[in-house]
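User: I'll paste a sequence; please echo it back and then give the predicted structure.

Assistant: Echoing your sequence first, then the prediction.
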Amino acid sequence: MPHSFIPLDFERLSLDEARARVRALRDQLRRRRSVRDFSPDPVPLDLVDTAIEAAASAPSGANRQPWRFVVVRDPETKRRIREGAEAEEREFYERRATPEWLADLAPLGTDWRKPFLETAPVLVVVFAIDWEAGSGPDGAESRRKNYYVQESVGIAAGMLLAALHSAGLATLTHTPSPMGFLGRTLDRPKNERPFLLIPVGYPAPDATVPDIRKKSLDDVRELR
């Protein structure tokens, strides 16, 4: 059935207000850094939930909203996730990664050890849902496909990172590969595929980050 249509809720800003808002957001997001040194201080759950609500407003293919956000706070579950991630990461650093890849990672000082997966008070595991389970008239299992899943979940994950940063929280995008252990550890159904693991918390008082530079506007934008 077709959707009913409602008036668009939209505010057209003055140019001065538009420029002020986008510059403020740009400057805020430029301060976001990937953090690996977390404080164990607890994070209010409502901050994480509100950020997830913001992420879940992302556009998606055919409005299928093919995402699930699993919030992990239980210490034992975090320990199991760390063990699974370190097993995959050790295999990556010692056997899977090419010399060129390792050379590119070397300046960042990373290795297979991931203590932040236990230290961070919250882990948000983002799952992509490739299809929805259902049943047909005869009771047999059926599958309803989701569309542009990778793109849709990627947009939602980016919005989640921005929302968590705006709440004054530190984050890290962690992608141990392969990530199948996350589905098993968190007992997820077979139609949910691990997409991204995001530790969330406050930086440790002595946290440091690499002194890196981002590409300039001229490097990333081309006018035609």
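The longest strand covers residues 192-201. Helices lie at 15-30, 45-55, 75-96, 99-105, 116-119, 149-166, 180-185, 217-220.
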